[in-house]
Design goal:
Integral membrane protein; membrane; mainly alpha; 194 residues; globular; transmembrane; transmembrane helix
């Protein structure tokens, strides 16, 4: 029964996150195609981040078998946190960073905060004994999984066909989704399996 839950978790979470990331990737391609300015691109991708978060949370919620948090709270918190994560991730390229030794410190602190946004928001919704483990496990899963989003970079540039760029980032998003799902599955089983 427990292995059934793990398969269920990996399937639902992967589908939710992959679909959500596809929306964010499409928004990025749209921003490029429309040649949006930095501010407009930021707004579009932060909004797409909310869709990604909502899709992820919907997949997670569908996989849960017991002790489910309220769906609206889980989805809302995750969508808001994903928007914040996209905002934090895009700020350095949008507003620029000061040159100097503090740049590395800012990037490291910002990276840790970015990785913590979704796990902390979800932990606040869970509010039960033992749920605190969700934060470090999820942060570690995202740290590993987000590396997939850099994988297409060596294969694309400004002259790459749009369909190739979209396809590579959709595949990267799917790999990211499966990675997050697989790495969080053992803890999710202890929290949400019957």
């Amino acid at each position: 029964m427990r292995s059934r839950f793990v398969r269920r978790w990996i399937a639902w979470v992967s589908i939710g996150e992959a679909c959500g990331f596809a929306v964010a990737a499409a928004a990025g391609v749209l921003a490029e195609a429309l040649r949006l300015g930095d501010a407009e691109r930021l707004v579009l991708l932060v909004a797409a981040g909310a869709v990604e978060g909502a899709a992820l949370a919907t997949g997670q919620h569908a996989a849960m078998e017991r002790d489910r948090p309220r769906r609206a709270a889980w989805v809302g918190a995750t969508a808001a946190a994903a928007s914040l994560a996209w905002l934090l991730g895009m700020l350095p390229s949008t507003v620029g960073l000061p040159e100097g030794p503090w740049t590395v410190v800012l990037l490291v602190v910002g990276g840790v905060v970015l990785l913590a946004t979704i796990p902390v928001a979800q932990w606040l919704v869970l509010r039960r004994p033992g749920a605190g483990r969700w934060v470090p496990i999820s942060m570690g899963a995202w740290l590993v999984a987000i590396l997939w989003t850099a994988a297409p970079s060596p294969f694309v540039d400004e002259s790459s066909p749009v369909l190739l760029v979209v396809a590579l980032y959709v595949v990267a998003g799917a790999l990211m989704a499966v990675t997050v799902a697989a790495l969080t599955a053992p803890l999710a089983r202890s929290l949400f399996a019957r």
